[in-house]
Write a structure and sequence with these properties.
A alpha/beta, B alpha/beta, C alpha+beta, A: alpha/beta, 3 domains, eight-stranded mixed beta sheet, 12 helices, 23 strands, B: alpha/beta, Rossmann fold, Ubiquitin-like (UB roll), de novo design (two linked rop proteins), four-stranded parallel beta sheet, 18 helices, 11 strands, binds flavin mononucleotide, binds iron/sulfur cluster, binds FE2/S2 (inorganic) cluster
């Protein structure tokens, strides 16, 4: 603290602050767990829930830390008797009319009301008073359901529609304890970002129709990853259970998606749970019948077929940098070139970009050409039909195909490998701004035991090129670093939020 | 409804041209011991057609604006108001001159005056008299404020339930505009350009709270804002804004006429020993409503006692009844019992006895009033009028109402009284605006001062100390 | 507070064309008083409610919203916040009975009973079956020195008794 920054004291700890910060921000940065409902770093301050109250020396009343501006030397207590009793009092008020139907509430397990009420204890007498009845099960458009009894009127959802999307679909209605959130009589959101209010909602008042009643949270696996719906590369957490992907939620990244996701990206995982997922490699026999094969047999068969066919590789613009590098090497061995394909369109002024290939920037960095019309290719890798449509795949007449869904396999194929969806693969993607970010496999999603596409590509390369040395992830990353396009790039440690690339 | 001047038998004396009348002298109790009425603010209330510009001008309207524009700098006007020690008449009693001093003079933004004419505090009806019977005095006060603090636009926020006040103020604005008291370069003063508009409310008590009023003025729900920033820096439309009560500004022309020192000499002096006792200078419209023979509004120099106000002016209790409890100023202040009425009507004196001057319009409850039911009625008001944004007020006010209803229904237990005390602690001082405090104060004081009445309505809790019949009151 | 509808109606209302010819000039003048269009909401809604039979229908709500360039949910938020606005048909005559402390001390509860009985309804805030009355219980109307107070169609009546209230309501068509 030699740099003369002003300081405040929180629970005895002296902390420097930047002008413009509020006490809760200083406290959170220092690791204090000050509870909050209506505060969100991306929205204006409402100061209405009163759960973040702290005691300040010299002030007779407890203060809301989310709105309180520090002044030099201010002494704040988060755990004093006054601070604790003020928060417990607020909690009691929040629960007096709250239905407490946690056993049937989707929010249970990640509900801040449930959390804090556990921490602070429920007030003695709240149960003796009849609860106020308010509307339940109100449709907010097609995707969202609202429960006014669970709602704590923090106005986060309203402020999101006012301040972030500026579409103003929501408003507070009524007054006093009959205040509720209402939606425009148009009945649907104008914004493509409506589902963020579900994440914002600190309680289970806003739930996703898509996720409703699908699973209790504690049965699910969660993995930090990215959305691959477009080249923005929004940071997400994927949630899955028993092979199925159940939901996707944003992870905050100030440089990429702040706290948000678009609805389309969030819901763009139908293909992950498709009925026709390919779960194991297959080989076509001489009489045209598909049989299941072990990975090793399929690799051998693929090598045989490719030695014979040779030529290009056509891959999905959502492939990882590792997959793309290997595809480029493979094409070189086969005397061809690697090309990538990706859909475009649907961009807006906020997060969504026209480029839908999640790693199109990476493909360009590796010098891959963009496939726009049908041309022959020996290998095709396809996760999403939107990127590699039938005309391109069938037109390529490939012999070896990596596909997520059986419907994407052209008739020409002789060896097929299962290609995990992005939620099931590990690797690097370069987003629209040139930032290298990581996707991670969620073990609870997708068919069991499918081989990693990168591993299979390496094996095939090894078969085709006796001089090829197995590189693995470390070796591949080293190779990527030596690419001129990524020479100045910072590679993220796996399992982290991604780092910007110079260009 | 024309404001009704019931009590005063005296006709207001015409004031005549400015400066021709001597400064009114201090009020003295007469030989009969009666505290006299004063007619300074209310001097035109009895004059026929007092609200028209023609009549108002005969009474000297706008001469103080002329005087200020011709002979005083804006800073001198602020100084005169500071000298007068005028305190806000809207309830909080903040020194008006000090508040005007907060307006940044270097700001390039438009500056606003929002005149608080919401008057939705229950039991309060004094501003209505001013707007209906002397709208030009109100407007002159606004213009003096505008001159003193360099304002550009005046919005007069009148509650929607005051149709005649709206009509009279709009009429006054129109007349004043035509006569050159509003508009560009008022009275030829270069650069003194002010517009005025009436903004009608639409039925919400909370819009009397200054920042709730600003939200409402901006076309939103009247959700009060967290202060700071104070309105003087960031008020209406994000610009510097003065907010004053109608009566507060109606005093200003007289202060300009007779001087701040004269005004400061009226009423109750500050206590040099107590820096927080800022005194109660000047006069005040005071009223009484409820269980009295002759409810009404009168103007007094501060100093009349609550008892004198109720017995000498409001006629005392109805025949055969006794005064039981009085809220001295609106609904939002702690009650005083019949034994506590010998307190002077003044900011500091009432605070000292655990209540407050509020709007200085008392509500009297007599011995036929069931205090449990009164509490239910009061709690219902605050629950109904809570804007709903902060948790302790939104949930707490309604919770209190439910408990009083439970006690009234004979289902209460002494534990409910403890629960209420617990709720008071968790509601008071925990919210964005003072509505929640205002809900707690009367309820807590009634609960403490009339606890026996609550116990008497609980099964198995009969209280032998209870005066006969005092809780046995039929539903009203 | 009046009851409110929580769910959005199945079909979005067709916005009424607003302002109608008769209100155009008045509305434009109101808008000109403020630095934002939103600020004109309350005065414009007062005019609209008066013009369209004492209440603001979803269609009028949408029309006003379009005129003032705010969302219809914002307007609905105002209509349900401010006690003077109605979001349901308000009968041919609107009767407000003050319920707050002073009026209650002077007999307001009896007035409410009388008003409801006259209207033939069992609670405040609903139109009478014959469409003649809407009785609303209101908080302090600022006429406490002449309590109890009642407003009928915007006009104040003071020191009202059950008898005088019956007469007043009988005089309503
Ligand atoms: C809940 C609440 C209601 C209020 N209602 C009124 C009111 O109706 N009229 C008024 O002048 N002040 C009212 N006030 C006080 C105002 O917030 C503010 O203090 C006042 O307008 C300032 O003006 P003054 O300094 O001239 O009194 C209210 C305050 C609160 C907390
Ligand atoms: C401690 C304190 C500080 C205040 N500071 C300011 C200020 O800086 N600027 C201002 O315009 N008003 C200031 N006020 C006046 C308030 O804005 C307000 O008019 C007055 O307190 C009435 O409060 P109410 O609305 O709660 O009744 C202050 C009031 C208090 C009690
Ligand atoms: S919102 Fe939270 S506290 Fe309420 S029912 Fe759901 S999980 Fe329980
Ligand atoms: S729905 Fe959720 S986010 Fe919206 S106000 Fe209610 S609790 Fe807050
Ligand atoms: S903007 Fe693109 S990356 Fe972000 S959530 Fe939407 S589709 Fe996915
Ligand atoms: S205290 Fe009550 S009225 Fe004031 S802001 Fe909070 S909820 Fe609204
Ligand atoms: S988080 Fe601070 S008041 Fe809600
Ligand atoms: S209490 Fe009814 S008019 Fe004031």
């Amino acid at each position: 603290m030699a740099d003369n920054k002003p300081t405040i004291t929180i629970d005895g700890q002296v902390l420097a602050y930047e002008p413009g910060q509020t006490v809760i921000q200083v406290a959170h940065e220092a690791g204090f767990d000050v509870p909050h409902y209506c505060y969100h770093p991306g929205l204006s301050i409402a100061g209405n829930c009163r759960i973040c109250m702290v005691e300040v020396d010299g002030w007779p009343k407890p203060q809301v830390s989310c709105k309180l501006q520090p002044s030099p030397g201010m002494v704040v207590h988060t755990q004093s008797a006054l601070a604790k009793s003020a928060r417990a009092g607020t909690m009691e008020m929040l629960l007096v009319n709250h239905p407490l139907d946690c056993p049937i509430c989707d929010q249970a397990g990640e509900c801040h009301l449930q959390d804090y009420s556990y921490q602070l204890g429920q007030g003695e007498a709240s149960s003796t008073t009849a609860k106020t009845k308010l509307p339940k099960n109100v449709a907010f458009g097609e995707k969202i359901v609202y429960d006014a009894e669970r709602c704590i009127k923090c106005t986060l959802c309203v402020r999101f529609c006012e301040e972030i999307t500026q579409t103003n679909e929501l408003a507070m209605s009524g007054r006093g304890d009959h205040e509720i959130v209402i939606m425009t009589s148009k009945g649907e959101f104008d914004t493509a970002y409506s589902m963020n209010i579900i994440d914002l909602c600190p309680v289970g008042a806003l739930t996703s129709r898509d996720f409703r009643f699908k699973s209790r949270l504690w049965f699910m696996d969660f993995t930090e990853s990215l959305c691959t719906g477009c080249a923005r590369g929004c940071n997400v957490v994927t949630g899955g259970r028993d092979g199925a992907m159940l939901r996707m939620e944003p992870r905050a990244n100030a440089e990429v998606n702040q706290w948000w996701l678009c609805d389309e990206g969030r819901l763009d995982y139908a293909h992950v749970n498709g009925a026709d997922r390919i779960a194991s490699p297959r080989i076509k026999t001489a009489d045209g019948v598909w049989v299941q094969a072990t990975v090793d047999d399929a690799i051998t068969a693929a090598a045989v077929a490719l030695r014979e066919a040779g030529g290009d590789v056509l891959l999905d613009g959502g492939c990882t940098l590792e997959e793309m590098l290997l595809a480029r090497d493979l094409a070189k061995v086969m005397g061809g070139k690697a090309r990538y394909a990706a859909a475009t369109g649907g961009g807006d002024k906020f997060l969504r970009v026209d480029e839908r290939g999640a790693n199109a920037k990476g493909a360009e960095g590796l010098g891959l050409a963009r496939a726009t019309k049908a041309a022959a290719a020996a290998v095709v890798i396809v996760e999403r039909d939107a990127h590699v449509p039938a005309a391109l795949r069938d037109g390529a007449a490939p012999v070896v195909v990596f596909a997520t869904d059986a419907a994407s396999v052209p008739a020409s194929a002789r060896v097929v490998f299962p290609h995990g969806s992005w939620a099931e693969r590990d690797g690097l993607l370069v987003n629209t701004d040139g930032r290298i970010q990581v996707i991670n496999r969620n073990p609870a999603v997708g068919p069991d035991n499918i081989p990693a596409t990168a591993d299979v590509l390496e094996e095939i390369l090894g078969e085709l090129d006796p001089a090829y040395d197995w590189r693995g992830r470390g070796g591949l990353h080293a190779a990527l670093r030596s690419e001129s396009a990524f020479a100045k790039a910072q590679f993220p440690a796996m399992q982290s939020a991604g780092v910007g690339v110079g260009a | 409804m024309t404001a009704k001047k019931k009590a005063s038998k005296k006709k207001a004396a015409a004031k005549g041209p400015a400066g021709s009348t001597p400064a009114p002298a201090r009020a003295q109790r007469g030989a009969d011991g009666v505290y006299p009425e004063t007619q300074i603010l209310s001097r035109n209330f009895g004059v026929e057609d007092s609200w028209t510009l023609a009549v108002a001008r005969e009474q000297g309207a706008y001469t103080m604006l002329e005087k200020a524009l011709a002979t005083m700098t804006p800073a001198q006007v602020v100084e005169e108001v500071k000298t007068s020690r005028l305190r806000g008449r809207g309830g909080a009693g903040f020194p008006t001159g000090v508040k005007w001093g907060f307006i940044p003079q270097d700001s390039k933004k438009t500056k606003y005056l929002v005149l608080n004419a919401d008057e939705s505090e229950p039991g309060t009806f004094k501003d209505r008299y001013l707007m209906e019977l002397d709208p030009h005095l109100v407007l002159e006060g606004c213009l003096l404020c505008a001159y003193a603090t360099g304002l550009d636009v005046i919005y007069i926020y009148i509650r929607g339930e005051y149709p005649l006040s709206i009509t009279r103020m709009e009429g006054a604005i129109e007349e004043a505009r035509q006569a050159g008291y509003l508009g560009k370069n008022i009275l030829g003063k270069q650069g003194f350009t002010v517009e005025a508009h009436v903004h009608p409310g639409a039925g919400a008590y909370i819009c009397g709270e200054e920042t709730g009023m600003l939200e409402s003025l901006e076309g939103k729900r009247g959700h009060p804002r967290i202060k700071p920033p104070f309105p003087a820096v960031e008020g209406a439309f994000g610009c510097p804004t003065v907010i004053n009560n109608v009566e507060t500004l109606a005093h200003v022309p007289c202060i300009i006429e007779f001087g701040g020192a004269w005004f400061a000499g009226l009423g109750i002096q500050p206590d040099p020993a107590n820096p927080r006792a800022l005194g109660s200078s000047g006069t005040k419209l005071m009223g009484v409503s409820g269980d009295v023979k002759n409810p009404g509004v009168w103007e007094f120099e501060f100093g009349i006692t609550l008892r004198e106000l109720i017995y000498d002016y409001a006629g005392g209790p109805l025949d055969g009844r006794k005064v039981k409890a009085v809220i001295p100023g609106g609904l939002s202040m702690p009650v005083l019992t019949a034994g506590e009425l010998d307190v002077p009507m003044g900011y500091d004196a009432l605070q000292k006895v655990g209540s407050g001057l509020g709007t200085a319009t008392a509500i009297v409850m007599d011995d036929a009033c069931d205090m449990v039911e009164a509490c239910e009625n009061i709690a219902h008001f605050f629950a109904d009028e809570s804007c709903g944004q902060c948790t302790p007020c939104r949930e707490g006010c309604h919770w209190m109402e439910k408990i009083f209803a439970r006690i009234k229904a004979g289902e209460g237990t002494p534990k409910d009284l403890d629960l209420l005390e617990h709720l008071f602690v968790n509601i008071e001082g925990r919210t964005i605006c003072a509505l929640a405090d205002a809900a707690v104060w009367p309820l807590r004081s009634i609960l403490r001062k009339f606890r026996h009445e609550f116990l008497a309505q609980m099964p198995g809790q009969s209280d032998p100390a209870l005066p006969a019949g005092s809780a046995a009151v039929g539903a009203r | 507070m009046s009851a409110f509808e929580a769910s959005a109606p199945a079909a979005p209302p067709v916005p009424a064309s607003f302002p109608p010819k008769e209100l155009r000039q008045a509305c434009d003048e109101i808008v000109a008083r403020y630095p934002t269009r939103m600020a004109a909401c309350l005065p414009v809604l007062h005019l609209a409610q008066k013009h369209f039979g004492g209440w603001i229908s979803p269609e009028v709500e949408a029309g006003v919203a379009a005129y003032l360039e705010v969302s219809d949910s914002h307007i609905r938020g105002l209509l349900t916040f401010y006690a003077m606005f109605n979001t349901r048909p308000s009968g041919r005559h609107e009767v407000w009975v003050c319920r707050t402390l002073t009026c209650w001390l002077r007999g307001a509860a009896g007035l409410r009973r009388t008003a409801l009985a006259k209207a033939g309804v069992d609670r405040c805030g609903v139109e009478s079956p014959d469409g003649r009355f809407l009785v609303k219980d209101m908080e302090c109307l600022g006429l406490c020195e002449v309590a109890p107070a009642v407003f009928i169609d915007g006009a104040p009546h003071t020191e009202v008794t059950t008898e005088s209230l019956e007469q007043l309501m009988d005089a309503c068509e």
